Amino acid sequence: MTVVEFAAQLTAPWAHLYGDSKLVSTSVLFGHLGGLLLGGGFAIAADRTTLRMVRATAAARRIHLQELHAVHRPVVIGLAVTFVSGLLLLAADVEALLPAPLFWLKMGLIAALLGNGVVLERSVAALRSGTGCAGRFWRRLELAARTSLLLWFGSLLLGTALLTA
Question: pLDDT tens, 77-88?
């Protein structure tokens, strides 16, 4: 028995419930898209403002760093909802998703998005504490914001491709 066959057998009860219930499938998909909208929406708005702050005054930057710190919580909550609902979506169609290269490419983008979030958070923390070279951390923050935008939209594109495949 292959890993995919074992996973399909293990998740078969969920796959049947998901496939047989419009309420369940709609709720899970709503959770996935809602989490994406929450986390991605806050992140994209913050990324846009970060890119504008690169050339702003020191006072405006300090305020923005406080906002970036505050935005972290809804982004993480949105990602958590998206992660749990994504596991439920995977469990509903293991046989199609696990062998799909698009699925693994999307997972790679999500992993990169999480890693980029760590870079972003560390840069914000360093800037808020005043340690290190501010110019270097602002350049890192600008690169992280640009990367974040690419990763959010890239993972959305691949997720859409998976849903329509």
Answer: 999 999 999 999
